[in-house]
Amino acid sequence: MPARGLTLFGAAALVVAVSLSPHAQSTAATAATAARASLARSLHGLEPGEFVVQEQRVPIEIVLIGFGNQQVKTRDVLDGLPKSYRPVVRYPQLYGLNGRDLGLEYDFKYSVERRDPMFERQFFDYLSRIGREGPPTLYQEAYSAQDRGVLDIDGPILYVDAPRVEHWLASHDRSQRTGYRVYFINWYGRRDFRFHVYTKTDDPDPDTKFNFGEEPQTAMNSWGGSESRTWFYDFSAGPEWNTSNWVVDFDDLDGDGVEDYRMPPIWEYAAGAYRAPARLGADMGLLTRYVAINLLFTTSPLYDPLVTAPGPGGRKVADLTMFEDDPASTGADSINPAFASSRTTSGRPASMMSVPSIRARRTHSRRSPRRT
């Protein structure tokens, strides 16, 4: 395709040049040559006999909401962030193999911004409006029952719908920057502060209809990526189960003699508390690097993306094969093709994903007779 595009471009330039004067033809030829060179650089992808690494500039904006000017130093946030990153195929490395080089390199450009008091007031007012009152979670109660905790969490607390908060941030924060955005939030310390957690309760299990989003272990302090290139982490939410930041009485969670590092709630960043306040900026950097960048924005795939070759027109084909061992049942009966298709096409154009084909292959175990 690049060669054909360049040929058509050159042919069009030649037709125009024929109708011009010699001087104009020379000028047009020079312009056409420069345009072809520019186009060739922009279409550079394959180089015979060479492995080409595609480099991409990735802007990442780190936004602070509710933090005082002296509470977080910009340099503390940025010091631990990588300048570049080359993703790898992770699964082969479990077996000591390097895996295929993906040929990608991301160069990061960071910025740290603070939102003004009016934006903060509007945002926290929104949390108060959409929050649903309820008792403290099991893990908030467990935090309050410990000896070293700075405070006790009293109810009622607010259960805030996480996707709605992501939508509000994406639609109200009209930054001119492009790329990814990380929000760090602190509601604590304001007169309108409420203890709170984030939830997502509109996605029950498709088979059992059980709503895991209503279980106490699914209450969160972060969310993002469902409709935008943003991820937020609320230091003033929780504590919660997923990060074990409700545990403050001891450092070692698994008994191996090594501290299990975790980010406590914001009120534990204080003199004599779980974490020194000077560590807050560095902890933001750790969250940005190991969660936002490594796991969400420029993640390394578990399996090689090229193991699924595209179909005609570049369409991906999802082929599910069931290997059966029980002649009395068919595993394909347990799969809903329409649901599988809707999930696999989520976040990408429908034209690039074909409806999965479902096949069931039966295998029969051949067991040797038991010897006595």
Explain the overall architecture.
The chain has 372 residues and is α/β, with parallel strands linked by helices. The chain has a six-stranded mixed β-sheet with strand order 2-3-1-6-9-8, with helices on both faces. Strands 4-5-7 form a three-stranded mixed β-sheet. 27% of the residues lie in helices and 17% in strands. Mean pLDDT is 81; it is low at 1-20 and 358-372. Strand 8 (222-224) and strand 9 form a beta hairpin. It has helices at 2-18, 22-42, 74-78, 117-130, 138-144, 162-172, 280-297, 337-344, and strands spanning 54-65, 84-85, 104-114, 132-134, 157-161, 180-185, 196-199, 222-224, 230-234, 319-324, 357-362. The chain has three domains: 2-42; 55-297, no CATH class; 309-362, no CATH class.
Oligomeric composition of the shown chains? single chain
Biggest sheet details: 6 strands, mixed
Query: What is the chain-wise order of helices and strands?
Result: HHEHEEHEHEHEEEEHEHE
What Rg do the Cα atoms give? 27 Å
Dominant shape: globular
Largest sheet, order of strands side by side? 2-3-1-6-9-8
Distance between the termini: 69 Å
Number of structural units classed as domains: 3
Q: Give me the count of strands.
A: 11
What ranges have pLDDT less than 50 throughout 5 or more consecutive residues?
Answer: 1-20, 358-372
Average predicted local confidence, pLDDT: 81
Strand content: 15-25%
Instruction: Estimate percent helicity.
Output: 25-40%
SS element count, helices: 8
Structural class: alpha/beta
